[in-house]
Design goal:
CATH topology of the largest domain: D-Maltodextrin-Binding Protein, domain 2
Largest sheet: 5 strands, mixed
Radius of gyration: 21 Å
Structural class: alpha/beta
Number of domains: 2
Shape: globular
CATH class of the largest domain: Alpha Beta
CATH architecture of the largest domain: 3-Layer(aba) Sandwich
Number of helices: 15
Order of helices and strands: HEHEHEHHEEHHEHHEHEHEEHHHH
CATH superfamily of the largest domain: Periplasmic binding protein-like II
């Protein structure tokens, strides 16, 4: 009976543990297109430059889920943004230059979570407060401050995380005096751009690297009061993973500075706008880069 009990306990642990992690790296991502692309870039980079097997665990909901997954050892790596790490995870004020924010996040993640923050990938994906291009041209709008005067007649749409984050809706509304015709609609991030184009909403908080911005003739309003901090894309890596496999850190360092704002927008459009297979899109992109 005792032997049976031990066996049942061991079996119950198998789904959580899975196959041996000794030579396997698990790459995670959040649940929107850019994160899927970045996760695949990291996965293919590791596969190409190490002898390790890579498991993909993408679409892990939002920031908080990915943070818990990496702290719990369920994933080894995932792509994050420095401004998100600063405000949503570290609960610090959204302020500072790109280098200041990166340095602060890197130091705090190492000390508090035993997580390494890799080198920035090259682009800054800040929040984009978007309206339709037709409205921007008709009303002569260029900045969020100018748009605030029209907001009482508009309907807004935001992602769930944006509604809850310290660098999200409440602070933005207070900074610019935004008031809308009704409570903002909480929507899936993948629906915001098309809902804006289809006039279901009149203003949305997307991302500056969204490939559908030019494709759907949307207009990004200037953050003229500098509300949003920098959001540089970086790999977050467990220190235990680096200790066991330093070649993983070396492989990811090969991506440092390799993705520009424009390139990220093109990659997003290839997947979102052209509906191409993400693995093929990433494979072609990496072939154009001669990372050391």
């Amino acid at each position: 009976m005792r032997r049976l009990t031990i066996l049942l306990c061991l079996v119950s642990l198998l789904p959580a543990c899975g196959p041996s992690r000794e030579n396997r790296i698990v790459v995670g991502s959040k649940n929107f297109t850019e994160q899927l692309i970045l996760g695949e870039i990291m996965a293919q980079q590791i596969e190409a430059r190490t002898h390790l097997t890579v498991e993909r665990r993408f679409y892990l909901a939002g920031t908080y889920i990915c943070q818990q997954a990496i702290l719990g050892g369920r994933i080894d790596i995932y792509p994050e943004y420095t401004g998100t790490a600063l405000t949503a995870i570290l609960k610090q004020k959204p302020e500072g230059t790109r280098q200041q924010v990166y340095s602060r996040v890197k130091a705090e993640y190492a000390q508090r979570f035993r997580l390494a923050v890799g080198s920035p990938l090259g682009f800054n994906d800040t929040f984009a407060i978007e309206i339709r291009g037709d409205d921007a041209r008709r009303l002569g709008l260029k900045t969020i401050s100018q748009a605030a005067a029209y907001s009482p007649k508009w309907r807004a749409g935001f992602g769930y995380e944006f509604m809850e984050r310290p660098d999200g809706y409440k602070g933005l509304a207070a900074t610019y005096g935004l008031r809308f015709a009704e409570s903002p609609r909480v929507m899936d991030l993948g629906l915001l751009a098309r809902s804006l184009k289809d006039k279901q909403i009149d203003l949305a908080a997307g991302n500056t690297t969204d490939g559908l911005i030019p494709a759907l003739d949307l207009f990004v309003l200037e953050d003229d009061r500098h509300y949003f901090p920098p959001y540089e894309a970086v790999p977050i890596i467990r220190q235990q993973t680096i200790a066991a496999h330093p070649e993983v850190r070396a492989a990811l360092d090969g991506l440092a500075g390799k993705i520009s704002d424009e390139e990220m927008q093109q990659l997003n459009y290839a997947v979102d706008g052209q509906h191409r297979d993400v693995k093929q899109v990433v494979r072609e992109f990496l072939q154009t880069k001669s990372a050391p």
